[in-house]
## 1
Amino acid sequence: MEWIVLVFIGLFAGALGALAGLGGGVIIVPALLFFGGMSFFTGEMTPQIAVGTSLVIMIFTGLSSTLSYLKRGTVDYKSGLLFFAGSGPGGIVGAWINKGLDMDSFTLYFGFFMIFISIILMVRNKLKPFPFAQKGKKRSFQDADGNTYEYHIQPVIAIASAFIVGLTSGLFGIGGGSLMVPAMILLFLFPPHVAVATSMFMIFLSAIVSSVTHIAFGNVDWLYALALIPGAWLGAKLGAYLNSRLQSDSLVMVLRIILILVGAQLIYQGLVG
């Protein structure tokens, strides 16, 4: 029963993560915290283990969806590596901060963060690019269909924003795409489908750094990880396929509602102890 639940958690998280460019950690971490307290789950579940295990899964989710997006020619490698220069160190700092959080503190902060993510998802299509979005180093990108896109990147702002995303990733065990995708669109005028694909590439790289840090701290339950990986791998491929075929607005709306409800529950749990 335990393994069946974990496989389905991985499948659901991988599909939604790749579809919306989130990475899937916003599903895996609260699911592990919730099911970890049930009788059919063996072993102790702490915030550190939930986060560390989730980040190991983010490696496979990020790799699977990145490979799918590479076939479609929508990954901007150069920009992804620039963002990784910030998200990698940020992930290490986030993992270090995570060490000092107990269950009540973590659930409280993570609950507020999930509600914040849901608000970002709610308004990201309505926000206008910042005035400086057309300044900086000009970059052009041609996708597999022959469409050419132009946008501008300021390296300092790119690395700084990615550092914040990496920090939240290492702290909460999420991929960081919920913040990175709108940042890429608003700050640098990335086309949405290129932003999602490039975000998953960055998530793959930064998850390696963050998870290695958590592994060094002993924060990974390898049995849970082995059960989650197959579902997450298949789910990420499904999500990447759906991203190129479907309008994801209705599914993202469902995700917003889920994040708000789960976030509220986590906040309540953190307050009452």
## 2
Amino acid sequence: MRAQRPARSGASGRRVRGILGAAAVVAASALLVSVPAISASAHNSVISTTPAEGEVVTQQPGQVSLVTNDDLLDLGTGAAMLVRGPDGLYYGDGCAVIDGASAAAAVDLGEPGTYTVTWQVVSTDGHPISGEWAFDWQPADGVALGTGTDAPACGGDAAPATEPDGGTAGDAGDEGGAETDAAASVPTDLLWLGGGVLVAVAAGVVTWLAVRRRA
């Protein structure tokens, strides 16, 4: 009888290793399934603007627009493009029209100077994103000038929040303005990641219990 104990011990070890191996496979599979969900939570990013950041414009552009890397959501609200002149007035109504991955708003510029476009749209993942970019308006001779207003018809709340140092959140960079709520996306991504890990762990535990009961 004593000579058979090592055989039982070896069989038990192989059984444990088999259980752990199966649990690891299931856990890894569940984690791989969660990866696409994490990627899907990424926000849109701006790839171009018209006029471009820092561009010198000499003719009425007719509109300002931006293009992102993915389709935007057209919810009827939540999209705006505010064009503010050097005199502090707004030009155009600020109402953005969504067309696939682009957003545009009609505008007639006024006095020469630097104009800032503050925008807000809804990303494909349902999150609002916003930012701003600027360009220079130097109208050619004979170009008719537009009239500004104290407040736009649309998007009065689209202006970026003021930072403690006096700047604004989401200032546009070389690519015409990146999304300003990237920091807000971090908790969302962490939730997706945490959910994927929990699913993987739960799948591993369930598999271990099932195999252990069967054994």
## 3
Amino acid sequence: MDLLSAILDEAGWKNDLLTRDAIHESWGFQFPCEKSGGFHIITQGSCYARFLGKQFELKKGDILFISKGLTHELLSDPKAKVVGIQRFYEKREHQTKDSLPITTFVSVRYEIPERPQHPFFLELPDHILMRAEDIAAHHSLNTATTMISQELESGFGSDLILQRLTDILLYYVIRHWLSKHPSASPGWVMAFRDNHVILALQSMHKNPSADWTLESLAKNIGISRAGLANKFKEVLNIPPMEYLTRIRMDKARDLFMKEDTTLEEVALAVGYSSAFSFSKAYKRLFGVSPAREWKKAG
């Protein structure tokens, strides 16, 4: 699994299809997203987006990704009355359909779990706007949006298919943004452009429970121990083994939520020889014992 896929998969974001319909009259909806993110994909017509004192038009093929908690509005025109998104279906039932719809769009919300998120997400802007004209005709983003549009127009679009397609779209949007926004400053955007760092990160994410040492990790990617340590310090400002510990502890926290899982089983699953050694590492990182975390999670 590549690094971006691993980060998105481990984030635990759960998607929820909010709307997938056409609107035939003036409309405006507010999306309260303080603790979530999401997509708006315009498949027909146009509308406006408004947040943080900014307002701009969205047209067919445009994609707006809200990457961080950000309450925002979508509306048919700047003077349209705005209501809560929960009234979407009520408004749809009372609209007339004698003419072509003003807008057809798909909105997907990503619920972000109540836990520390990967630092990569902190480097994303609060929103990413992708204009249809800026996406090459052959790009995978166009393929994904076309499939979403076709699924909607089929008349019996599957929620499951649409959810899977929007997960694919999430990956493509972030990957495209990374390719267009190189960074000369230390951080995760830079990490995606350093071959040695990204190979080391992918190795750790692929098999976090392996008996990694700085030496074995460096040998695995064809670099010296000092070279790997220096690259991590320059790019991510964190030692490789400390990052490995964080990956393991994040996995352990997820395992805590499963039933019939003992502390010993969790320790072995994330690469520790005993519950004692795991507990010491856990408390050193989070300042609380895993036993207390277990009780709180239960």
## 4
Amino acid sequence: MEENGVVRVADDEDFKSFRRLADGVEGWSNKYDKNGIRVWLQSKFDPETRIRLIKVHKMLHDVSAATTYDVLHDAAYRKKWDRTMVEGFELCKVNWTNDISYYQMKCPPPLRNRDFVMQRTWLDTGTEYIIFNHSVYHKKIPPKKGVIRGYSYLTGYLVRPKGSNACEITYVTKSDPKGSIPSWMINKLAHIFAPKVVDRLHQACRDYPKWKSKHDPRYKPWLYPEQMSLPPLDPSDLLSKEECISDNSLDESDIKEEDFKDSDLQDEDF
């Protein structure tokens, strides 16, 4: 599933692999189980990337799986609820269930902002919803001055209904913030940020039906492909990793943990 920078349409085996990650327990260690959120860390350490897979699971007792799936897709709504997003947009379609998109996230000082260019894939089986992405390289979204280009090896969601107005969601992520960020900060970001993503998503799902009823309620191209207006991917726009070098002048290697005493990363529960 994890093919560095490769753009291709996901197949059945890719979705099976993602389900195994989301549902599996072997090779995972439980790090947190409180307030309805469970967090696991993959036991195996990848010495090349310095990154472990993180998995977060939560039952959403007051929102449907369909609503959760809509919220994960709705780019217009994300601008309202995702307070870490600086900029985000869909660039082009690979096919009706795959696109290439851009996301820049605000990081708390003294960290620099990060951005990602990703191929996103989705599937609605009728009994579950799956969305996952990995980083790719595209000519029309070059690295930006002052922003560090991060890398998503794999990030995604598995959503299953648990009744008419409840669902369970599993969030899996293996992302490298890149730059010269210290290893202790990578671990801190992963342990704290991933659960917060799910918590903020839950609140966004509660508010979505009311918001959507007033904002083009019938427009859902992730459900109705005929509504998708994205231009098709031009294969000549795809680049290699070597052609997309981030701003190497941004040095964060001297960051100390006390620099984050009052930042949004602090959370005594994690």
